[in-house]
Design brief:
The protein is an all-alpha fold. It is built from eleven helices and no strands.
């Protein structure tokens, strides 16, 4: 029977989590640590200790921004952002879902946008998220302000090589 650590390592397709020697540089650089239930270093330790349920039920895996500051700081190039992606997908597949009410709906809107154009079209992603969450108008003025200040564009560039984008989704079996 495969351990939790082996399962996560297999899905990461990169530097195994055993390469982490817990220097905590990932945690020191993470802009979201103060909002996390467990810091990135602790999540790796929990995976190494087989604490599957505790990890997959934590809010931490949904709070990670995937900014990749952690891998930039890691002396062994352990890809914590990819690990968090894997953990989120495992939580979805096992029916655990997201810790926060609408985080999974945002995740779904983000993935749908990537599938559609290979890049994020922020206004389309916002519309899709708003429709999925049912929270249509709570921050409408903020969106309008962002548009008026030029922070949101109605038209976003599409990736020229959509075949590669489709291949990525096929290889990762991401529906």
């Amino acid at each position: 029977m495969e351990t939790f650590l082996e399962e996560v390592n297999k899905k990461i397709h990169g530097v195994p989590l055993q390469a982490c020697y817990h220097c905590r540089k990932c945690t020191a650089g993470c802009p979201m640590t103060k909002h996390m239930e467990y810091n990135p270093n602790k999540v790796i330790k929990m995976i190494q200790n087989g604490q599957r349920d505790k990890v997959l039920n934590s809010s931490t895996i949904w709070i990670c921004l995937s900014c990749e500051t952690c891998i930039t700081r890691c002396p062994n190039k352990v890809d914590i952002a990819r690990m968090m992606d894997v953990l989120r997908q495992m939580a979805i597949e096992t029916g655990v879902g997201a810790y926060e009410k609408n985080v999974l709906k945002f995740h779904e809107a983000f993935i749908a946008g990537m599938k559609r154009g290979g890049r994020i079209n922020e206004p389309m992603m916002m519309v899709e998220y708003k429709l999925k969450s049912g929270d249509l108008f709570s921050d409408a003025m903020l969106g309008l302000d962002m548009f008026m200040k030029g922070k949101l564009s109605l038209l976003s560039p599409r990736t020229k090589d959509m075949k590669s984008v489709r291949n990525i989704f096929e290889k990762t079996k991401h529906s």
